Here is the input.
Amino acid sequence: MIGSGLFGCGSPGAARTETLRATTHAPTHAPPAASSAPAGALASPPTGRKAPTMAPGPAGLTPVFTRGPRGSGDSARSRDKLVALTFDADMTADQGPRAASGERFDNPELIASLRRLKVPSTVFMTGRWAREYPAQARAIGTDPLFEIANHSYRHYAYTSPCYGLPVIDEADMRDDVRRAFAAFREAGARNVVPYFRFPGGCYDETALRTLASEKVTAVQWDVVSGDAFAKDADAVAEQVLAGVTPGSLVVMHCTRSAAPVTEEAVERVVPELRARGYRFVKVSELMRS
Here is the structure.
């Protein structure tokens, strides 16, 4: 098997690893393509430095980045002890009525805390989220502290099983990625990088082969925060602090209704990791290291 999904943004439950298999998906109606250009070509990295990407994998498959170099282990110098906090801004295509009724899929308090703490971060945003909160997408995507990466448009799974998420048809995958990049551009976001995170972290060889033409690097993680549906911020913070090593890539969430204690957990994690000598970086810098 090519892909494995770690609990990131699917259904409630404990963090777990699940081996995924290729399946035959029921056809769905494909949305119109946002552009004929590869999705990666549509990204707009921060001015001054081009965001790095990985070379294609075996047989030209979409490459997958999980973490940065480990440095020298526990004795690594401070400049080598890098860690990337990433935040999934989840919203599926059919959650508009829930947002209209008052459910909050954003978390502006979390973004404000990251600014106050001066934590460079990568936000993996769905196109539907950007369309629901265009002012926030623009503010995040024009702030040099952040970069926006692609988390699909609809937040449908790219393989099954995947925590109960609806499954996108193979024929729709490329357009789904392109629609998300289009939504970021329409919101006015500029700091957009050619990275893609599979909804739920679930993928297989078919998905990697299908997205190869889009010139994106798939980004996973090595530390699961456990913030999805959590109610105990201290437990989330402890899980992150116990899992981080030099080069770690942490998955968290920027969705208030589904991850209500993330901001509080971050308030504890950031000063503690800094006290341990870690430096926070975006995924682009972690990949560059």
Summary: Confidence is low (pLDDT under 50) at residues 1-8, 11-34. The radius of gyration is 17 Å. DSSP finds ten helices and eleven strands in the chain.
